[in-house]
Amino acid sequence: MASLIKKKVGRKYYYYIVESKRINGRPRIVHQVYLGSVENILKKFQEGGVSAGPQGSRKTKVEKEEFEVTEKKREP
């Protein structure tokens, strides 16, 4: 299951999309994509880098090139 999480580093918050799976009965992050700070994400929306889905749905189309993507895979 994918979800959006925030991590605090110093005084700032940074956002990630993470995919979690149960490994040995416990939830673990198996895939993580860095999105950046709120300012970075808002900047991408304002520049038109992220568009809404059909009929104004809440789903968004995000392409990998739109963000500085840092992927981190964890092996069980």
TrEMBL record:
Segments for region (Disordered): 49-76
Composition bias, Basic and acidic residues: 60-76
Protein known as: Uncharacterized protein
